[in-house]
Amino acid sequence: MRDIAALRRAIVQHHAAAFPGFPPQPAPAPASTEPVYQAALQACSDLGFVAHDAECLARAWQARALRTGHFAPEQWPHEPQDFGLQTLPRAHGFAACPQDLGLYAVLPDAQWVGRMARAGVPTVQLRFKSDDPSAVAREVAAAVQAVQGTPALLFINDHWRQAIAAGAYGVHLGQEDLDALLPAELHALRASGLRLGVSTHGYAEMVRADAVGPSYIAMGAVFPTTLKKMATVPQGVGRLSVYARLMRSYPLVAIGGIGAEQFAEVLATGVGSIAVVRALVNAPDPEAAARTLMAHMEQNTD
């Protein structure tokens, strides 16, 4: 076995071109003395992965080396068993949703939800922000009513209790919201039959999401976005591609700063859905914008 420094260089040399533009990150303290683990931990930090993702990758690299009996620096880890993901069929999982959710519109209120559902957008999400529980309940119920008579699938952002009460198709949670659920609440959400989408921003969060078996996994932000302050830097298409390969058994949604001109390269990674916000809400003619974006989806998924 070569020394750790040589293994580290080999990994970086083979994969630096795939992840351009990320500054090196401080390597976390190693949790193992295994050479492959230590080399991968340092190399992934060199490639710009934050500490918890570098640690996740290092464990996967070591697991693969133990499983296969050799070290392959040219092969990026992508097998679910090396990351400890659930085997199929999953022991813990939410109700299924379509593998390809198509154009996914994230919208601020029920009026917008109805408008885009009637325009033919196949998947819509209500992202309604309010501290008033009564206002939230009314808006969620109105959104459920707004998609009646259309084939649109409606997900509710954050407000899972109101989503259950109103009979929505599904709910979407961020990592913090998922982590905050008590076991009994998670059980109630799964037992309701609602589909669950979960936001992820890297390897460690994808592994954490897999533990609950969501209906789909959202990955981003792919490109810079001004919609909200992001805890992580834009992931880029290179990272999105390896994320999608690892999580290929899930329906996948790419989100974050994606415009029509980027649909082809994003869909080429293997994701089956692209979420948009400003491309519709800020468009002079949102219905026309929706038709254009859906045409781009069709052109690049044939």
TrEMBL record:
Domain (Thiamine phosphate synthase/TenI): residue spans on this chain: 110-280
InterPro entries xrefs: Aldolase_TIM, ThiamineP_synth_sf, ThiamineP_synth_TenI
GO molecular-function terms, A-Z: metal ion binding; thiamine-phosphate diphosphorylase activity
Domain of life from the UniProt record: Bacteria
Listed pathway(s): Cofactor biosynthesis; thiamine diphosphate biosynthesis
The keyword Transferase is assigned to this record: yes
Keyword annotations: Magnesium, Metal-binding, Thiamine biosynthesis, Transferase
One BP annotation, GO: thiamine biosynthetic process
Assigned GO CC terms: cytoplasm
Top EC group: transferase
CDD domains in the cross-refs: TMP_TenI
Keyword Ligase among record annotations: no
EC numbers: 2.5.1.3
Name of the molecule in the record: Thiamine-phosphate pyrophosphorylase
